[in-house]
Amino acid sequence: MNLVEYFIKLSFIQKILQDKNNGKMSNGYLFYSLDSQTNKIAIDSLAMGLLCKNNGCFFCEDCVKVKNNSHPDVSYYPKDKSFSVADAKDIIEQAYKKPMISNIKIIMINDIDNSSIEAQNKLLKIIEEPPQNVIFLLSSANMDKVLPTIKSRVIKIEISPFTEKQIKTIFEDYKNKNNFDLAVLKGDGYIGKTLSILNNDNYINLYNFCKNVVCNLKKSSDVINFLSFKLDKENFLDILKTLSSMYRDLLIYCSNNTNLISDVSLIDNFEQIKNEFSQNSIIAILGLIDEANQRQNSNVSINLLFERLLVNILEVKYTCK
Ligand SMILES: [Zn+2]
User: Fold this and answer.
1) Most-buried pick from 41, 203, 291, 300 (CB within 10 A)?
2) How far is the centre of ligand 1, averaged over its atoms, from the C-alpha of 159 (Å)?
């Protein structure tokens, strides 16, 4: 399914399109969620809906141009990796030019949180007093990094994670991939996160490997077996993240809050191993994983780091019993 087509029908986009038709639009909107890609698709969809005479028909000239990122009345930022002072200056210049083929001009800024205070301050000037018919569509994956003065000038819309059913519909084209169920489960209801798992054919191996560590690390000789998994800087981070979320689920399971578990497919496994862990040992293990996460940027070899982690987990498991 086309993502923009799906998003445009969502109520939070439809509400703004309705406001447009009633002449009640604001000059600035800021979409936010933890997932940068989800936010980006939201503002892409809104741009299409606003420029199309039929609120986003998908087929007219305006829609096709927005779809191809070639609409003359839409400007995309950042021009480089992150939003800069030069981008803000460019926006000020662009904003005062008349729209070419539409009656509005849209300025899109993705990941505004990924920019300096200086750049945001520069942008503030134009957001405070936008020229007529200019609409700012901003997105942010971390609201703490957006200046309060910018936040107060725009309408903020939080995008909630999609439900499992919605994610399955959105990604139905992928349903034959062997990591589909896992991606739906571990994508946390976000587009970018789900896609990154769907596009990573090794994720299923990595997931099973982590499950194996949590369930079957019982004696020193197991450590050697686990060390045969081929590590690199990238999958090491994923392993730490996955282990951390599995142990967190185990902790929740051991404190009898089964309904809060994020990966329910692990419950049967937890039932079999719960007696091997005290709650304190799981808390200590989570601390060890955090520590490894912090140290992976130093010059220590990741193989050594992983070996230490496994040995320490084993030790904690037995001393906290
Ligand atoms: Zn259209």
Assistant:
1) 41
2) 24
